[in-house]
Amino acid sequence: MAKRRRKTLTLQNIVLLFFFVLFVSFGAGLGIFFSYLKDAPAFDPNKLKPSETSFVYDKDGRVIAELHGEQNRIPVSIDQVPEHLKNAFIAVEDQYFYKHKGINFRSILGALWTDIVRGGYHRGASTITQQLVKNAFLTPDKTLKRKAQEAWLAIQLERHYTKDQILEFYLNQIYFGHSAYGVESAAQTYFGKSVDKLDLAEAAMLAGIPKSPHTYSPYLNFDKAKERQAVVLNTMVEMGFITRDQAEKAKNEKLNLVGLKKGKADYKAPFFTDYVVQELASQLQKEFGLSEDEAYDKIYNEGLKIYTTVDMKIQEAAEKALADPKNYPYTKYDKNGNPQPQAAAVVIDPHTGYIKAMVGGREHQQKLGFNRAFQAYRQPGSAFKPIAVYTGAIDMGFTAATVIDDSPVYYPAGSGKQWSPKNYTNDYKGLTTIRKAIADSVNVVAVKVLSSIGIDRGIEYAQKLGIKSLVLTGPKNDRQLTIALGGLTKGVTPLELAAAYGTLANQGTHVEPVAILKVLDKNGRTLIENKPEQWPAVSKQVAFIMTDMLRSVVTEGTGKRLASLPFPVAGKTGTTSDSKDVWFVGYTPQLVAVVWMGHDDPTPMSHVAGGYQPALIWKQIMTVAQKDLPRMNFERPDGIVGPINVCLDSGNLPTELCYKDPRGPRVRGEYFIKGTEPTTFCNVHVEKLIDVSTGLLATPYCPPELVQKRVFIQRPKPYTVSPKGQIPLDAKYEAPVEYCNIHGPESSFEVPPREPEPSAENKAIQENPPGWSE
User: Fold this and answer.
1) In which band, very low, low, confident or very high, does the pLDDT at 160 lie, cut at 50, 70 and 90?
2) Would residue 238 show up in a list of annotated catalytic residues for this protein?
3) Which one of the listed residues 51, 107, 126, 382 is annotated catalytic?
4) Closest CA to 235 of 364, 84, 98
5) Would you give the distance in Å from CA 459 to the centre of its chain?
6) Is 750 known to be catalytic?
């Protein structure tokens, strides 16, 4: 008896404990629920209007663009919406719409169980009323707090409006992709008719789109759209809205889509603004967990204030330059009506990463259309040499005076084949300093230097400078010597290349480009505040030497059409095989800019070069950009010595013979990173006794009146001859190796003549070389 009583008491205790825990949990949950409601937005019926305009501001806080969905929104009353369209939405979005009071507890419990089992947020439970509330009052954040506030506001909304009024708000607000908001706009965008003219098949197709316009738009993925249409029709059958026969007939009906029309932007700086919209959408997805469609909906409908970096003075100058047909070798139109060749330009402040201007084509033809400034991956040609070759080489001990023999060279290319790089001039110059190789864009020297430092080291420095598009795995990748010439698997974008050169302009510190500074919501709260990512890439000294060499491109090399500019410019031209892509990348102490030109479908061009059309467009843009900026020179950091005079054929300190070269003095002043300056004297220039009648080395038998002292070059290593018999152009300045055999008995000549003693003047130069300074 006692045992039975104890069992009864134990059971009672368990029951009491269960109800106690249930009561406490309910109380705690209720407490949390009410705490969430404390800062819930006030119920404001005015916010039920479809959307609020977002504004884009330039660097001075002036509005350059108004972004709003109403551009393609035509409100209609619920009476104009056919019953089968209303039923289609109710079937697929909220089957109990006319029965619940704003929230559907059955769906909530089902979604809660799914989320508990699978972990995280997987299944939605929002009613049409809740979806309307979320768009009007709240953010799309997937949190319990937002869901609690959404439920509370949905109940209030149901108390203020009838079901038909709520459905009307919803159908006029919902997004269908392609800038179509509301059922009337969607009906015209997809079928070219008013909403009241839609048949069942068309209505079911439209009702399926809002779940994910990017996925279910029949313009983007017709098969997926048809699958979704079938889901809508089947659900309508289950609910008794239509018969099975009606559903099957609608599934088989041919849909007559009217096609998308290109819509030109009606705002300033259209290419830049498009970039801002796309970058902001991407950032909203990453930081707030929004879908792509939710992100764009937020941008176009939630009254955001978007503060950007664009300088409209520079932007307008860039747009004007790229639109001028005089800047192109010719103009023809492709099948899409786009003028060819095309062009793109980007201007960046290398110290802050701020994008000052961006133009992605000769004319802006479509909102969020193809923007060549950041979406076109093209071959950079010689513009890639400083990025993948010379910056790394300087950091590894090469100098501007390092001499490389521009002569034929062969590398294994697999399957027993060989590859021999060629210069665009179709010749070989011979002994060439790295400065000269950069200024004249000598291909062979670039390849030899990359081979010397190693391909992986070249890739490493390209990545340090900010290049992200290299392909490093797979059967076809960029671990090839051809990257020295800008031959890449994928290519680079103008924006990417501008940022890489910006690293050199910013004394070796890379700053990632940024266009959006800050984004506020309609209530003034900060949603996003960007600080550009940056990292040290190379030392200030390496950046200075690279900049100084790149100045030679403009003062004496392939970019000399810019030599007359009243501000210092460092830059590089780029012209690919068959001139399919031509570039000029240049920077001043304050700004870096890139101009690219080429056909959208890479096509050989004639009468073009990076130092011609792109350089002249660059000049037009930067003349305006630099107009009001203070005159500055590139800053020389500590740890740089010079200029120190060096021989152009040896890279060493000059002797008197370097000044007596038959081509003229072969000496120039060079800067060096301290510790890399030369300490030995030229061993390339030599003086020989020549029999002028034969041009050969004199012998003791040659008449004195026919013997003269002449200066020649003598290579440290012999050159290679190309299959076509080409030899370096400076080979004619090499010392002869044969002796005169017309004076005196040939058989008696066995001992070569003695070398002349250095003159007193030469000895003095060796002891105290000219131009030596620190």
Assistant:
1) confident
2) no
3) 382
4) 84
5) 17
6) no
